[in-house]
């Protein structure tokens, strides 16, 4: 008996789009190297296929993805190793952001930390009304691999989420422009497919060159520079005494215990 693939690929029979489903539901679709590489390869392949003009990205089970897998490796590293690790992850996220084929995030359940960064690198985002989105990793002296949030929504909301580690539901995510639209959970995939059909029926070059212009505007305004600065800043944070202490806990203690300790100071404030 073979293991299930970590990424499910489903081409629509009627329209020119494909659905990519992250498929580690027992791990809340945490992003390990196998899943990251499969996703990177699938998006690159979709760009080569003239019969694919839109991509839906979603997660199996209770989560879109909770972010990078915190129990798959030893993360107590020095600054140089963190720089290499985070740069590689930025390159993978950039594949989504730069894709000629527009990518729709269909956010079911949790989209946290690197998982939220992944969603923000998609062109468009729909969320279930009861989805949970946020950057809770800041509570254990960590930070996002890219810096996509300031390019996604107003800076006041960016500061709130990045300073507090608070999570917001899909309705609030829509209000603060973190997603385009929140819909009832049982309608999420129908709405995502409806949007993908609309995009797939557009003239392909129209979206391709519109996206190129929009991405160029972000590049001109400094997106790449901000990502590179963030790699340096968060690598230093992770390698700091405080950062190392938390990474050591994640290596040596059960993750659920570490997360309980992390959240304890905020239980009467959230």
Q: What does this molecule look like?
A:
The protein has 270 residues and is an alpha/beta fold. It has one domain: Alpha-Beta Complex (2-enoyl-CoA Hydratase, Chain A, domain 1). It has 10 helices and 10 strands. It has a 6-stranded mixed β-sheet, sandwiched between helices. A 4-stranded mixed β-sheet has the order 4-6-8-9. It is globular, with a radius of gyration of 18 Å. The termini are far apart. The model has no long low-confidence stretch (mean pLDDT 94).
Q: Under the CATH scheme, which architecture would be assigned?
A: Alpha-Beta Complex
Give start-end ranges of low-pLDDT stretches. Answer: none
Q: Give the overall average pLDDT.
A: 94
Number of domains: 1
- Alpha-carbon distance between the two ends: 45 Å
Q: Per the principal axes of the C-alpha atoms, what is the gross shape? A: globular
Number of helices: 10
**CATH topology type:** 2-enoyl-CoA Hydratase, Chain A, domain 1
Task: Write the element-wise H/E pattern from the N-terminal end onward.
Answer: EEHEEHEEHEEHEHEHHHHH
Q: Biggest β-sheet, characterized?
A: 6 strands, mixed
What is the C-alpha radius of gyration, as a whole number of Å? 18 Å
Strand order of the largest sheet: 1-2-3-5-7-10
According to DSSP, the number of beta strands is 10
The secondary-structure class comes to alpha/beta
CATH first level: Alpha Beta
Looking at this structure, what is the CATH superfamily?
2-enoyl-CoA Hydratase, Chain A, domain 1
What is the percentage of strand-forming residues? 15-25%
Summarize the amount of helix as a percent range: 40-55%
């Amino acid at each position: 008996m073979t293991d299930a693939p970590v990424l499910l690929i489903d081409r629509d029979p009627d329209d020119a789009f494909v659905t990519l489903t992250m498929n580690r539901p027992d791990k809340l679709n945490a992003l390990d190297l196998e899943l990251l590489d499969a996703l990177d390869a699938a998006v690159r392949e979709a760009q080569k296929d003239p019969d694919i003009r839109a991509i839906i990205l979603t997660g199996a089970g209770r989560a879109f993805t909770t972010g990078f897998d915190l129990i798959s490796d030893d993360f107590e590293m020095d600054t140089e190793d963190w720089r290499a690790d985070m740069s590689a992850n930025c390159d993978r996220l950039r594949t989504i952001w730069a894709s000629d084929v527009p990518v729709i995030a269909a956010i079911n359940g949790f989209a946290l930390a690197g998982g939220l960064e992944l969603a923000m690198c998609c062109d468009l985002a729909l969320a279930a009304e009861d989805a949970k989105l946020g950057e809770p990793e800041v509570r254990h002296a960590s930070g996002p691999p890219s810096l996509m949030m300031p390019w996604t929504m107003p800076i006041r909301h960016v500061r709130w989420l990045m300073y507090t580690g608070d999570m917001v539901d899909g309705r609030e995510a829509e209000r603060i422009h973190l997603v385009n639209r929140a819909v009832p959970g049982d309608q999420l995939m129908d709405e995502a497919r409806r949007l993908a059909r609309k995009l797939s029926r557009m003239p392909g070059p129209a979206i391709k060159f519109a996206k190129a212009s929009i991405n160029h505007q972000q590049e001109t305004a400094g997106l790449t520079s901000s990502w590179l600065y963030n790699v340096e800043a968060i690598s230093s944070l992770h390698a700091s005494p405080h950062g190392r202490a938390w990474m050591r806990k994640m290596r040596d203690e059960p993750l659920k215990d570490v997360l309980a300790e992390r959240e304890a100071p905020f239980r009467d404030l959230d």
